[in-house]
UniProtKB/TrEMBL annotation:
It comes from Gouania willdenowi (Blunt-snouted clingfish). Pfam families: Olfactory_mark (PF06554). PANTHER family: OLFACTORY MARKER PROTEIN. Gene3D superfamilies: Olfactory marker. This is Olfactory marker protein. Signal peptide: none annotated.
């Protein structure tokens, strides 16, 4: 979903790609049923992970900031996938995962209204990498891992960009 503010900023919301998530879960269950092992370097989806996407309406963007909200406590890790990945044709390989990863969290002992914690330098670099990759693609995929009580229904994650003039 795209929102525009009065400053012409573009806010893109991470949306779960249910079909890709399901396809990756089927790969895991297929390997388990047949007793086969994953391919060398293949990255299988873990039970607490899902595939999300950002759709870029324009390619010339500069990263501005993250918007992240989580009701309750938990940890959310956002890992970018650097290649234009098509799981119906290829398996996800670990070499396709971007660094740094984005991590947001609120500890169980923290008050509900306390701000989320994050590694700001990593989040800044990660946002800049996303803007860089947006120059050559219209969509980008991410793995979101929800741990320690975090739930997708209680999560909102988006990133703000400014169009380059």
């Amino acid at each position: 979903m795209e929102k525009r503010s009065c400053t012409d900023a573009i806010v893109l919301e991470f949306r779960e790609d249910v079909a890709l998530t399901e396809m990756m879960r089927l790969r895991v269950s297929s390997l388990q049923r047949s007793g086969q092992k994953r391919q060398d370097g293949e990255r299988l989806l873990l039970p607490y992970e899902a595939v999300y996407r950002l759709d870029f309406p324009t390619q010339d963007l500069s990263f501005s900031r993250w918007y992240f909200s989580l009701c309750g406590h938990g940890r959310v890790t956002v890992t970018g996938i650097c290649q234009l990945w098509t799981p119906d044709l290829t398996h996800l390989m670990t070499r396709q995962l971007l660094e740094p990863i984005g991590t947001f969290w609120r500890n169980a002992e923290d008050p509900e209204d306390s701000p989320l914690k994050s590694l700001e330098a990593d989040m800044q670099e990660f946002g800049e990498r996303i803007a860089e990759l947006a120059k050559v693609r219209k969509v980008m995929y991410f793995l979101l891992a929800l741990k320690d009580g975090a739930e997708a229904a209680k999560l909102s994650c988006s990133v703000e960009f400014t169009p380059q003039k």
